[in-house]
Design goal:
Number of helices of chain A: 19
Number of strands of chain A: 15
Structural class of chain A: alpha/beta
Structural class of chain B: alpha+beta
Mean pLDDT of chain B: 86
Low-confidence stretches of chain A: none
Shape of chain B: globular
Strand content of chain A: 15-25%
Distance between the termini of chain A: 43 Å
Number of strands of chain B: 16
Radius of gyration of chain A: 26 Å
Largest interface: A-B, 21 and 21 residues
Helix content of chain B: 25-40%
Low-confidence stretches of chain B: 375-388
Oligomer: heterodimer
Radius of gyration of chain B: 23 Å
Helix content of chain A: 40-55%
Strand content of chain B: 25-35%
Largest sheet of chain B: 7 strands, mixed
Strand order of the largest sheet of chain A: 2-3-1-4-5-6-7-8-9
Number of helices of chain B: 10
Distance between the termini of chain B: 44 Å
Order of helices and strands of chain B: EHEEHEEEEHHHEHEEHEEEHEHEEH
Mean pLDDT of chain A: 86
Amino acid sequence: MKLIAINFALFLYTYYSMKHAIHAYQQNRYQKERYLFWIQQAGKHWLKEHLKIVCLCIPIVALCFISEDTSFWLYCSVLCILSYIFYRMEQETEYIQPLVYTARVKRLLQMCTCIHFIIFSFLYLCFPFTLLLLMTPIYYFMVWFTLLPASTILQPLERHIRMFYVNDAKYKLKKHTQLTTVGITGSYGKTSIKNIGQHFLQEQYLTLATPHSYNNLMGITLTIRKYLKTMHEVFLCEMGTDHAGELNELTQLVPLDYAIVCAIGPQHLQTFHTMEAIINEKMSLARSLDQYGTAILNIDYDAIRNNMQGLACNVITYGEHEDADYRLLHIAYSSKGTSFEILHDGKQYAFHTKLLGKHNISNLTCAIALAHSMHLPFTSLAYSCMTMPYVEHRLQMIRKETYTLLDDSYNSNPIGAKNALEVLKQMPSPRMIMTPGFLDLGDMARQKHQEYARQIVDACDEIILIGRKQCKDIIEELHRCNVDSSIIHVVESTKEAFLVMEQRMQPQGCALIENDLPDIFNH
Amino acid sequence: MKIRVLVVFGGQSVEHEISIITAVQAMHSFNEEMYEIIPLYLAKNGFYYSDECLKDMKTYRSMDVVEQLTPVHLEFRTQGAFVVENKRFSFKTAKEFDLAFPLMHGTNGEDGSIQGLFQLHQFPCCMSPCMSAALLQDKGMMKEFLLHHGLNTLPYVCLKQQDDVSVLFDKIHHIGYPCILKPVHLGSSVGIEVIMSETEALEKVYRVFQYDERAILEPYIQQAEEFNLAVLGDANDVKLSDIEQIEKQQGFFSYEEKYGNHAKKGMAYAKRKLPALISEQLTKQIQELGKSCFQIFHCRGVIRIDFIYDIQKEEVYINEINTIPGSLAYYLWEGKGLSYTQLLDQIIWIERNHYRKQQKQIVSYESNLLKHWDNHGLKSGSKLNLDF
């Protein structure tokens, strides 16, 4: 009876800590390495956050001086009260990206609970009760680490479940003989190309695109199983990679007819370690094609241009480079949007769009190259280009009552940010930026953040940075550039940043929201 | 991979049997290499049935056979739409389908209700959309619309069940004798009455009200000819069939005379000319009326328009428009080199095209307006700011 009671009380006490740990694990894509690296990075900040929990446990020490019979039930009651406090605290917390209770998360929660049951039972049965009492704060933090063995135990089962779904998706695709598949990869711009591509191709083909930013094996599997219908003619598949070999796994699931490599940059350097590894991985998409396939490559990137020799497939190139098959020319911005021209087969074709930023125009060129090679005429593409809506949160211009908001919150790379700042520079003053910097830049993080800071100085009159530690390099560089500290505002959450923005915004001004990291990364 | 087509037929309508004939004919005419046909029969008892035997005309000779089948229902899931057996405990089979093809005639089907069911779930459904089907099923609304667009149709008055006798007579006198009375929602000549004189007027009016609570009254043209024209296409492209000419015999065809066992006066016995032997000018006039009709009602797939021609006045009028014509009016296309199989193929192609375009339309906003709306009721909430 007592064993069950103590286990139940400790379960309630550790539940929210366990939930937070699984939340962080989920946002680190269930990858142990990433999760541990994140704990290492955010460790101090995170300990400070949870120190009050340890303080709440101090009165428990008093229970050591009471007889065990009385203290046992008192202890259980205190744990229940503490769990209620945690519950209230949880109710008041707002997450940008809350924990999604998927079947996997539920399995993890159950396995963690089982492990805790074994640990708590062992401690209760084999050690003096006083020791159990004194270890109370440790239990709270322990669950962050019991998650790892729980995940390891579940790994074979997870692999089995994944394989079942993947094979099912493969079978469904195999039956769909008339489907044209398009894979899109690149360090940035994949989602935009996919959205623009779908807008273009839908004029002639019933097109399915992977929703949101679903770009890993399970995301693509889910898309195929859930959304792919017999009537679909084209499947636009965003393919992300953050470790070597991932694209190979994806192309085995979805054999491609078209492969797009749109950009190569220092994304996920932490897991790839070298730029060569990134280039090799991205170009593996084009290498997966046979002689009937077509690779569409952005040759503005040296990394792509220098590595496209020896491909077995047909190659179509695009970009500003003079050798490009679809060459982007004469980009001109105005208050109504962007005009540009494409040179193909010696003829120039004019386009107009309300999308902003050079990277968006490059993405449009890529989608035009894809659609044109799939027999859509330039006239239809010019019309589609004109009616192309803003991609939400991708340098989307929102006119507020007194000011203009440039929402680029889904962008998370330095090049996109540079382009956004260039657009911001052409907007009326005062100009403001709200940013938490970037993630996953590995060893280049410092250098990229410093460059970013200099671009900000050049374009902005007011700077709001989210997360003191996360933005450390930006703040240092801003001070080095002698920026007046009264225009730099460092806040700890996105919510706070919005409050500062509302307060400081002046009429006719323009604010840029650049990147919007999940809460756990804002520190 | 074959496209799985759900053929929906039957329904709670006086034209139930006609729908079965149309569906069985169609199910045997689909291109088997391209389509897998799943029949969905809505029986008179209100249950849905789906079984291979429903493709055979013999099954319908006795309803006992049909009622022995396991009833099914439709399920719209995120993965797609399914026909699922109504079983509680044992293993249920679920057949997925990609596209619906309604072949129902008359009320509770052709009136847009079946199209509405699929439209609600954003699921592709062949033939005219809910709005057009609903408008064209109501003869009063159809005439109103035609007159509004200046298209030739006979003058009419609408009689309602709740009208006083004096009002009814006023309306009948306004049209004059002889006149023809039609229930607004029924087709295939069901419930139609010709009123020759005042003495029989009231009896016939009340007989028609047994079928429908509203009826339209229009002049009865004694020296008339009927022309039929089918139109195929969508908003972008319209094709016209040959014009069929039906010489009107004495009186008009009742339902029993048209389709009954002793249908000696029926459709098969009417003197038909296909293509019609008429002047070029009349052909052009009928074709233009047909095309305009198809476009103003935003029809899709195939429709059949019935015209009535007043020989004395040499005037042609739009009489009736069928959004799901019997046998899909395939016989009108044969002269144009389009077989029944090809016609069905084209209708499906039109729907696929429409579905693709529909996918491009904005039906909802990705951003959730209520995301930051944390007040638990309007009392505590401020006015919603909609300036996005």
